User: Fold this.
Amino acid sequence: MATTPTRKTRFSRRVPDHVTDELVNVLGNGDTLEFNQLFKLVYDNLKLKNAVSGGEEMLRLRSYEKLQGLVSRGLCAKAGKTYRGLPGLRESHQATIAARTAAVAAR
Assistant:
């Protein structure tokens, strides 16, 4: 009997997550910012690094999605329309990056 090779049907993103990195950098200062102020800082930083792709509106949606992920993981506090990075945000993000790198290296 011949066996057919198993194909991976799941897509995994292996590129660095620049949006989350910038969100952590901006929120890691301990400032409390509204989303529009936060997005402006993130967008400007990404623009300086030439890491903006897909247009400003798409980046705004991705930033909001990533920010809500940080809030749901308990790394950021949301009060009304303002966001603030909590203590341990940078350390947790670095641990996530290390785990992701180790998982890719193990493959």
Q: What stands out?
A: Residues 49 and 87 are 26 Å apart (CA to CA). Residues 18-106 form a domain with the Arc Repressor Mutant, subunit A fold (CATH 1.10.10.10). DSSP finds four helices and three strands in the chain.
